[in-house]
Write a structure and sequence with these properties.
Blueprint: H1 5-11, E1 13-16, H2 19-29, H3 35-57, E2 62-63, H4 72-77, E3 82-85, E4 89-95, E5 103-104, E6 115-121, E7 127-134, E8 138-139, E9 145-147, H5 155-166, H6 169-176, E10 181-183, H7 184-187, H8 199-202, H9 210-214, E11 222-228, E12 236-246, E13 249-257, E14 269-274, E15 280-285, E16 293-300, E17 304-311, E18 314-321
Helix pairs in contact: 2-3
Length: about 325
C-alpha cells in the first residue's frame, strides 16, 4: 500500500522533544569538526531520541548505548541514526527535511537494518513527527536507495513489524525442533542458505521442460531447490522462487517435484504453507500422476512462514524469514 503526503499527515505521530534530548543533541553536535556535520549529528540524535521514546511507550525494549549513533567515533566518521531494538536488531531513524520528497539514505546504513523510520523535526526542535516506516529501502529517483513518502507505512505498522521480528512463532517452534531459519532477504542479496542449490543442479533435464518455464514467477530474482525426505524411497524436490514486483513486498512461489528420474509424485503428498502461528493457510495435495504441486503467496519483510511436505505420518518442514 502507498500513501500521499496528505495521508502521511493524518497518520504521522508527533511527540515532544524534552530539554534533555536537545541538550544531548547539542553535546554530540559540539564534538563535530564542521557546522554541517554538527547539524547532521544534531538531527540524527533527535530522530533516534523520539523513536526511542515511542518504542518505550509501546513497551518495546531498546538500548541506545549499543547504537552507532551513540558512539562518538561512529558519529564522527559516518552518517548514522540507528537504534538497537533488543531481540530484533537495528532500526534506522532518518531525519527528513522535506516531507514531500524522497529522503536520501547514506550507503553506510543500507544494510544491517530491520527497518527505516522517517522523522520530521520541527524547526523549534521542541517536537518531532514520526512520519512512517518502511521495512526495506527502494531505489531513489537517481538510483541510490531513499525513503519515499509514498512508500511509508503508518507508525502502528512498525509495531506489527517489530512484533513479527520479536515473536517469530514459526521460527521459534521449528528452532526448538532443530529446524534452521532460511533468510530470504539475504537470498535476494545473493547469500543463499546452506542446503539450497541452483534448480538445474537438482531437477533433471526432463523436469526442466518448456512446461516448467510457464509455471515460474515472472521476473523471478532467485530460484533455488533442495531435496526433502518424507518417508519414500527417493527424496522429493522443493523449489522456491522469489520476485519483488512491488515495493516492500516479496512474491513467493513454492513448488514440489518428484525425485529426479521419476515422472510423478506419490499420491496423497501434501504441500503446505504455515503462518507465523504454525497454522496451515495454503495447501495442495497430489492425487495420481501429478508431476508437481505449486502454491503462491506474498509477504513483507520480517514475516515468517513454514513450508511443510507431508506424506502419511512423515513431514519435512523448512522455516523462512522474509
Amino acid at each position: 500500500m502507498t500513501y500521499n503526503t496528505a495521508e502521511i499527515d493524518d497518520f504521522a505521530l508527533t511527540l515532544p522533544l524534552p530539554q534533555a534530548a536537545r541538550q544531548l543533541a547539542q553535546q554530540f553536535a559540539s564534538q563535530q569538526p564542521t557546522p554541517a556535520k554538527a547539524e547532521q549529528v544534531r538531527h540524527n540524535t533527535l530522530a533516534v531520541w523520539v523513536v526511542n521514546d515511542y518504542l518505550q511507550m509501546m513497551g518495546i525494549d531498546t538500548d541506545l548505548e549499543r547504537g552507532d549513533s551513540w558512539n562518538a567515533i561512529a558519529r564522527l566518521t559516518a552518517d548514522v541514526a540507528d537504534l538497537e531494538v533488543i531481540g530484533a536488531g537495528r532500526l534506522e531513524c532518518r531525519p527528513v527535511q522535506n516531507v514531500s520528497a524522497p529522503c536520501p539514505v547514506p550507503p553506510e546504513v543500507w544494510g544491517d537494518r530491520i527497518g527505516y523510520v522517517a522523522v520530521h523535526i520541527d524547526a523549534s526542535q521542541r517536537e518531532a513527527s514520526i512520519l512512517g516506516f518502511t521495512p526495506t529501502l527502494e531505489p531513489g529517483d537517481d538510483g541510490p536507495p531513499a525513503l519515499h513518502p509514498a512508500h511509508l507505512q503508518p507508525p502502528e505498522d512498525l509495531m506489527d513489524h517489530l512484533d513479527r521480528l520479536l515473536h517469530p512463532l514459526v521460527a521459534t517452534t521449528l528452532a526448538r525442533a532443530g529446524v534452521s531459519l532460511n533468510q530470504l532477504g539475504r537470498w535476494l542479496q545473493g547469500a543463499i542458505d546452506a542446503g539450497w542449490s541452483a534448480v538445474d543442479a537438482v531437477l533433471s533435464p526432463e523436469q526442466l521442460s518448456p512446461a516448467y518455464a510457464f509455471r515460474q514467477l515472472s521476473n523471478a530474482a532467485v530460484r533455488r531447490a533442495k531435496l526433502v525426505e518424507v518417508g519414500v524411497s527417493l527424496p522429493l524436490v522443493m523449489e522456491l522462487s522469489l520476485s519483488t514486483t512491488q515495493p516492500g513486498q516479496t512474491d513467493i512461489c513454492v513448488q514440489l517435484y518428484p525425485s529426479p528420474g521419476t515422472s510423478s509424485l506419490p499420491p496423497n503428498v501434501y504441500l503446505r504453507i504455515l503462518d507465523e502461528s504454525g497454522t496451515v493457510f495454503l495447501e495442495a495435495q497430489s492425487t495420481t500422476l501429478e508431476d508437481y504441486l505449486q502454491l503462491q503467496f506474498s509477504g513483507v519483510s520480517g514475516e515468517t512462514f513454514g513450508v511443510q511436505v507431508a506424506l502419511g505420518d512423515t513431514t519435512a518442514t523448512e522455516a523462512f524469514l522474509i
